[in-house]
Amino acid sequence: MKIYPKDLDACTPVATHAIGQDAAAGVAATLKALADPLRLRMLSAIAADPRGESCVCDLAELADVSQPTISHHLKVLKDVDVLRSERRGTWVWYRITPGRRAAVTALLDSFAPAAVAPASDAPAADDAPRPDFDARVTHLAEQLAAETPALAADVVFSTVRESYTALARTARVTSALIPLTERFARQRLADLMRDRAVDPPQVLFVCVANAGRSQLAAALVNQIADGKVIARSAGSRPADSIHPQVRSLLAEIEPDASDTRFPKPLTDDAVRAADVVITMGCGDVCPVIPGIRYEDWAVGDPALASDEGVAAIRDDIAARVRTLVDTLTHAQES
Is the pTM of this model over 0.85? Predict the structure, then answer.
């Protein structure tokens, strides 16, 4: 068979674009070590532990197996440097290797909720046909520019278009894109115009997916502070929807607002507008801006927790929120 030049072009090797052989071997060994249900449960328990570590006695309660079996699984995770251990008296404590925490969090946040979610017949966002939203986005930008004369029109237009593009990356249902873009853009424009001298203190909660802990913390601030403190939430890699367990909690905390909440990407203007930025114990990193207070709350992840665990996580966050609100409101009054 004769080979035409265009066929040669189509089959040009791209081996240089692939991961290196040594790196691939290392990643494969790690993934092989993780490919066990009990090891994944152990890893998620350690990642969600508010203490940042778990005792082997706690991990042994995850399954009805012998102590040597538990030790074997933990050793496998240690051998690929996913876990570190430290003996204190009788017990051994395990924590995620610092350099691996972001990867572990991304793995659990990305795959686990999808694995337990009901299957959907709807096409994925990348496969679904997208109508041309350009005219609608332009109309929205014009509307918001007219409503916010304090900002230059080009700033409003770029904010609206950036907001639309960021949300479109993870959107499953394109029919909701314009309403979500409007909500997200309005929030960003409000942050750009925020006057620290007169506006209430503002808190930004950040986690990877913005689908669980950060959403719950923001809702609890809005409930407890009653307008005296403003809460925002965002994610470095936002999910396409809020975790079902958290969605039900949001409906209890803020019945009138739960339907308007959705995962939002982390932006510099959200960080700059905040008085306090709080990461939710998931290894996220935020831009460091002078004058802003940063905290990390090591709280459990409700996405994979039992009903009792979700309630305990909610109560833990609520207690932290009360302390935070008291601190911010007293500082404002003094």
Answer: no
